Amino acid sequence: MTNPLRVGVIGVGKMGADHADRVTSSLGGAVLAAVADPDTTTAEQLATAYGVRAFADPLALIADEDVDAVIIASPGFVHEEQLLACIDAGKYALCEKPLTMDAESSRRVVEAERAGGTPLIQVGFMRRFDPEYLEMKRHIDDDDFGRLLLVHNVHRNKAVPTDFLSEMAVRDSLVHEVDTVRWLFGQEITEITVHSPAPSSLAHDGMVDPQIAIFKMAGGGMVTNEVFVNCQVGYEVRCEATLEHGSLTVGLGGGTLIRSQNRWGGSIPDDFRVRFADAYDREVQSWVGATRRGEVVGPTAWDGLASTVVCTAGMESLASGRPVSVSLPEVE
User: Fold this and answer.
1) CATH 3.30.360.10 domain position(s) in the chain
2) Delimiting residues of CATH 3.40.50.720 domain(s) in the chain
3) Which residues of the chain fall short of a pLDDT of 50?
4) What are the residues facing 300 on neighbouring strands?
5) Degrees to nearest 5, angle at CA 110 with 169 and 132
């Protein structure tokens, strides 16, 4: 492809608007072609600001011949329909997490993509593009400190809306930790247990917050995860990898901390768009470049399916308080 990639953005909420601005102002090789959202007023406002077309129907944007590729930032319950439309149209898609809302619909998406014969879907797990996480991954893969044994994750939001449910802490927040540890270990999760500590007084009625999730990995490693979505500290994401001969920590505000350096510093932002601004830029730029080459280089639809399966088991554990085994489905 010699011409700029003409990108359509579906969903004009916080994430979609951020991606529209990114395509317009920060990327090379791409131009914003259109936006779509059933909220036509907001879609028209955004389209007018960037001088592009607005669609009320996301499927019409996908089908439009002047749109080469699609960023999907719509609610998860419409992802299956939109992804299947992208596959039918032969158009590359960068889909924000979750891939879909449940394991069965994610399986249908993966099977449809495989039946089409060409990988087209990248899932928006931006931590794989964050410089700190990439440095951590390099140390692990290069065996600089021995075998990876444990990972400890912290995922905190300053606040969430009152319609944010306990299950969403698993499906929409913990899903990032699910993908991160699958990537760091290079293994699948075989069991998940979600524990419910005494809730914060800041959690709305019925909300289980914070939550503690424990993963068992296929190779015997273990992972602990704190998800606290009404934490007043700010938007704080940390990851510590414990290896045989040292530990690596990211998210302290000063680059990857190798424990022998033993330093602490930096600030904690209020918003995920600040913390992962560089990662989002790198993620979408990588997607644009790969799409122009006819490739998928980031997290795949299979990665999205695997994360959905783990989170589905996590929601079952949240409800029962018991460990739930994870088994990935056979996909034709």
Assistant:
1) 127-271+309-325
2) 5-126+279-299
3) 260-267
4) 122
5) 50
3-class state of residue 83 by DSSP: helix
CA distance 3 to 19: 20
Cβ–Cβ under 8 Å, residues 250 and 136: yes
Tokens representing 41?
């007023």
CA separation for the pair 225, 144 (Å, rounded): 24
- Which tokens is 156 given? 């905190």
CA 328 from chain center: how many Å? 19
Burial of 72 (0-12, 13-18, 19+ CB in 10 A): buried
Are the CB atoms for 73 and 14 separated by under 8 Å? no
Q: What is the pTM of this model?
A: 0.82
Q: Where are the alpha helices (DSSP H) in the chain?
A: 14-25, 40-50, 58-63, 79-89, 103-116, 131-141, 166-168, 175-185, 272-275, 277-293, 301-320
Helices 79-89 and 103-116: crossing angle in degrees, nearest 10, is 0
* Sequence letter at residue 93: A
Q: What is the pLDDT of residues 250-290, one digit of tens each?
A: 988 777 776 643 444 334 566 777 777 888 888 988 999 89
Which tokens go with 302? 């299979």
Query: H/E element holding 34?
Result: strand 30-36
SS3 87: helix
> To which CATH superfamily is domain 127-271+309-325 assigned?
Dihydrodipicolinate Reductase; domain 2 (3.30.360.10)
According to CATH, the topology of domain 5-126+279-299 is: Rossmann fold (3.40.50)
**Residue pLDDT, tens place only, 213-224:** 999 999 999 999
